[in-house]
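Duplicate of #3305? Posting structure anyway:
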């Protein structure tokens, strides 16, 4: 690539991914192996010795998968709250400093 800046590489990769997905007739079939591998991982997590009946192992794996994604959603919400609070604090500080430097009594 003529320009090796990280942002250019990132954009080129995104373009390639979009082009690839545009040429994919069955998106679900393309991602099926990844979904199966992830479920197998959760099955190994809940039954490492393979002693459970397949139906019970699958039920527990689905619960473990749901717990995993719910945990991710919780962490995401917490991060968004922290970001929002930080932006709010920054805005309050900016408004206070503006009021102080303007000589007003808004603070």
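Output from current build:
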């Amino acid at each position: 690539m003529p320009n090796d800046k990280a942002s250019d590489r990132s954009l080129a990769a995104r373009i390639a991914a979009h082009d690839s997905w545009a040429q994919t007739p069955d998106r679900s079939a393309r991602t099926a192996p990844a979904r199966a591998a992830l479920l197998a991982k959760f099955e190994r997590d809940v039954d490492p010795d393979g002693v459970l009946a397949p139906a019970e192992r699958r039920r527990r794996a689905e619960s473990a998968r749901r717990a995993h994604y719910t945990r991710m959603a919780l962490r995401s919400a917490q991060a968004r709250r922290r970001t929002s609070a930080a932006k709010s604090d920054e805005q309050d500080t900016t408004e206070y400093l503006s009021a102080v430097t303007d000589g007003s009594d808004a603070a």
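Confirmed duplicate; merging threads. The two ends are 53 Å apart (CA to CA). The chain has one domain: 6-102.
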